[in-house]
């Protein structure tokens, strides 16, 4: 089944000789019904611009446009994919702009008009770095309304993890402090070409108008990084470099100095950040 007048993705890949390159973290989704389903998980797109990273042969790009995205900005590092983007652009006049470049270097606000949503089958090798950037802008709320992103399932589980679990760590705290993250779709390796060695999952994150708990972003980030960089240590040891009187701060906010990072919730970490913050 096709969602538009363009050829099936296998044909697109064969025509343009788009064998996936491991060096670019490429694993292509070939089922247009599936890419349209992912696009729908981003919510109503009719009055939104959408940023897509790593469109590859354009399966999700076509899904986003077919689902009514006002405009799509697709940033693709692989120059082989640009003729495909041109074909999609011709089928959806005036609604797709494709840039051949590195998503880490492009400022999407030069091309997009709010409200903006981000939807992407992220390349495995830059997915986490991009997510952390989007979650830690200088000001909040961010330029995006929501993120609908494909990750390795292990990374997806780290984003939604709760205290006490092995997956719980810095990524969960960054995501849950300022957004509402949910795993909305699981995908097996055989959904991709080539099949990766791991399962994948789509995570949808909705930006909160303000963080769940008050804290200085820089201080919270330092506290969380120090705590989880030595997650086997008690907090009184792991956080000693932040303040010689760390035990007093921990006791003041109701955290036992003998606790380990994975036992402490977001609200408690925010309270500790407030206690340690020096304007």
Q: How would you characterize the largest beta sheet?
A: 7 strands, mixed
Overall morphology:
elongated
Query: What's the CATH H-level superfamily name of the largest domain?
Result: Vaccinia Virus protein VP39
Q: Tell me how many strands there are.
A: 9
Number of domains: 2
| Alpha plus pi helix count | 11
Radius of gyration: 21 Å
CATH class of the largest domain: Alpha Beta
SS-based class? alpha/beta
Fraction in beta strands: 15-25%
Q: Helix-strand pattern, N to C?
A: HEHEHEHEEHEHHEEEHHHH
What do the pLDDT scores average to? 95
Task: Name the poorly predicted regions.
Answer: none
- In helices, the fraction of residues equals 25-40%
The largest beta-sheet arranges its strands as 4-3-2-5-6-9-7
How many angstroms separate the termini? 58 Å
For the record, the CATH architecture of the largest domain stands as 3-Layer(aba) Sandwich
CATH fold name of the largest domain: Rossmann fold
Account of the 3D structure:
By secondary structure, this protein is of the alpha/beta class. It folds into two domains: 199 residues, Rossmann fold (3-Layer(aba) Sandwich), CATH 3.40.50; 60 residues, rRNA adenine dimethylase, C-terminal domain (Helicase, Ruva Protein, domain 3). The protein is built from eleven helices and nine strands. The longest helix has 13 residues. The radius of gyration is 21 Å and the shape is elongated. The mean pLDDT is 95.
């Amino acid at each position: 089944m096709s969602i538009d007048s363009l050829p099936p993705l296998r044909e697109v890949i064969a025509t343009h000789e788009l064998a996936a390159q491991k060096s670019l973290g490429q694993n292509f989704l070939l089922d247009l019904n599936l890419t349209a389903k992912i696009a729908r998980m981003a919510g109503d797109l009719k009055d939104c611009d959408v940023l897509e990273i790593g469109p590859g042969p354009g399966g999700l790009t076509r899904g986003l446009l077919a689902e009514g995205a006002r405009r799509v900005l697709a940033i693709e590092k692989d120059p082989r994919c640009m003729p495909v983007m041109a074909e999609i652009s011709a089928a959806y006049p005036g609604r797709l702009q494709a840039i051949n470049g590195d998503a880490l270097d492009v400022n999407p606000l030069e091309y997009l008009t709010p409200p903006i949503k981000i939807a992407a089958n992220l390349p495995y090798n830059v997915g986490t770095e991009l997510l952390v950037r989007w979650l830690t802008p200088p000001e909040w709320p961010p330029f995006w309304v929501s993120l609908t992103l494909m990750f390795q399932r292990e990374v997806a589980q780290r984003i939604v993890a709760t205290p006490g679990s092995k997956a719980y760590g810095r990524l969960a705290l960054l995501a849950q402090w300022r957004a509402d993250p949910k795993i909305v779709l699981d995908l097996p390796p055989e959904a991709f070409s080539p099949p990766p060695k791991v399962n994948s999952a789509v995570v949808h994150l909705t930006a909160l108008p303000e963080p769940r708990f008050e804290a200085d972003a820089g201080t919270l980030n330092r506290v969380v990084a120090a705590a989880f960089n030595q997650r086997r240590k008690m907090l009184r040891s792991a956080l000693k470099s932040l303040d010689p009187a760390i035990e007093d701060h921990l006791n003041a906010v109701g955290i036992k100095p003998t606790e380990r990072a994975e036992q402490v919730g977001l609200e408690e970490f925010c309270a500790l950040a407030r206690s340690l913050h020096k304007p």
